[in-house]
Every structure is written in structure tokens, then in C-alpha cells.
Specification:
This protein is about 60% helix and about 5% strand. The protein has a single domain, classed as Up-down Bundle (Four Helix Bundle (Hemerythrin (Met), subunit A)), CATH 1.20.120. The chain is globular and about 55 Å long. The chain has about 210 residues and is an alpha/beta fold. It has a 4-stranded mixed β-sheet with strand order 1-2-3-4, with helices on both faces.
């Protein structure tokens, strides 16, 4: 993913990576999981893959709804894309709820996974073809910190003080004191909107 320009680019630490890029990486990772599901015939593997898919989508949706969408809505004065995306999320969440804890013991299970896959494909297509390009064009101030964990707190505080939105990969910090500082900084009124949420590690199999 290429890094979007931000109005505070000169002040943003270089180690802070593009949030849109990681959202797109999440899309690709989930797509690969669905592809793996299509290939397997093992009930055990199916259940494990669906658990991964559901977890990945749930975390991804939370990050978008609590961090990315509010930033997009504010930057673009949007009244269409974000509400529609949230409705699509609701449909995805409903299928996730049906699949969680269910046993892969029949055609109905496979059908639900297939429909979930199609929902996600449609949602991803709209985001990547419409929302993401418009967010980049609007110079959305949003980055993701994916550096070594012992540098998260310092970089996050620097970004927040520069007025840049931050998504922090887990674990957020090394000590509770660092976390408190991050939260306090994020809670301080700044010129631009800022929110923090933990992001799932890149390797969801770990």
C-alpha cells in the first residue's frame, strides 16, 4: 500500500505506516482465508479457518467503525459512503454471529461462508474503488503504528500531538503508564480528529 499524504506529513514520524495500506492488507489476508476454505474438505480445517475469518473481520470492522469511518466522514463531509458501509458491516456481522460456534456439518454452513465471502468481496470493492481513493485525495490524517512494541508509545504521542489520527498494532505499549499517556494525549482536544484502537497482529495464526 502506498502512503497517503497528510496535512501534517512533515511532523509525522517516518516509522508510522499508512493506515489505508494496512486496511487493504487486511482485505487481502481475509480473501486468502476464504480461498483456503474453498479448497479444504476437512471439517476441522473449515472450523479453524472460519474462526480466523470471523476474528479478522470483527477486528477489522471495529477499527473501521471506530477510527477510519469517523475520520472519513469528517474529512469528506460524507453522508452516503460511511452509512452504507456500516449497513454492509451489519450484514457481515449477522453472518459472523451465525457461524460462531456452529459446526461445519452440512451444506447450510458452506452456504453461509460463501455468502459471507460475497458480502465481503462487495464491501471491499466499494471501499477500495471509492472510499479509499477519496480519503487519500482528501489528505486524511490517519496512520498506523506497526513498529517494535517498545516504540509504540513514543511514536503514537508524537503523531497525536501533530494532530494525526493513530491506529496502534497490538500490544499498544510495554507499560500501563505508557498506555495512560497515550490515552491522555488522545483525549486532549486537538485541531484534527484523533482516535486510538488496537489492531490485530499481522499474523493472525499466532
Amino acid at each position: 500500500m502506498t502512503a497517503p499524504k497528510t496535512t501534517h506529513a512533515a511532523k509525522t514520524p517516518a516509522a508510522a505506516k499508512d493506515a489505508i495500506a494496512l486496511l487493504k492488507a487486511d482485505h487481502e489476508a481475509v480473501s486468502q482465508l476464504f480461498a483456503e476454505y474453498e479448497k479444504t474438505r476437512s471439517p476441522i480445517n473449515k472450523k479453524a479457518l472460519v474462526a480466523e475469518i470471523c476474528m479478522a473481520l470483527s477486528v477489522h470492522a471495529q477499527i473501521e467503525e471506530e477510527v477510519f469511518y469517523p475520520a472519513v466522514k469528517a474529512a469528506l463531509k460524507d453522508k452516503v459512503m460511511v452509512p452504507e458501509a456500516k449497513v454492509e458491516h451489519a450484514g457481515i456481522k449477522d453472518l459472523i454471529a451465525q457461524l460462531k460456534g456452529a459446526e461445519p456439518d452440512g451444506e447450510a454452513y458452506d452456504a453461509k461462508v460463501k455468502v459471507l465471502s460475497e458480502y465481503v468481496k462487495h464491501h471491499v470493492k466499494e471501499e477500495q474503488n471509492e472510499m479509499f481513493p477519496k480519503a487519500r485525495k482528501a489528505k486524511l490524517d490517519l496512520v498506523t503504528i506497526i513498529t517494535p512494541h517498545n516504540s509504540h508509545a513514543d511514536l503514537t504521542v508524537q503523531c497525536l500531538k501533530a494532530g494525526v489520527g493513530v491506529v496502534v498494532e497490538k500490544p499498544m505499549a510495554i507499560t500501563t503508564a505508557e498506555v495512560s499517556t497515550m490515552i491522555a494525549t488522545a483525549s486532549t482536544p486537538m485541531p484534527s480528529m484523533r482516535r486510538m484502537k488496537g489492531m490485530m497482529p499481522r499474523d493472525r495464526r499466532g
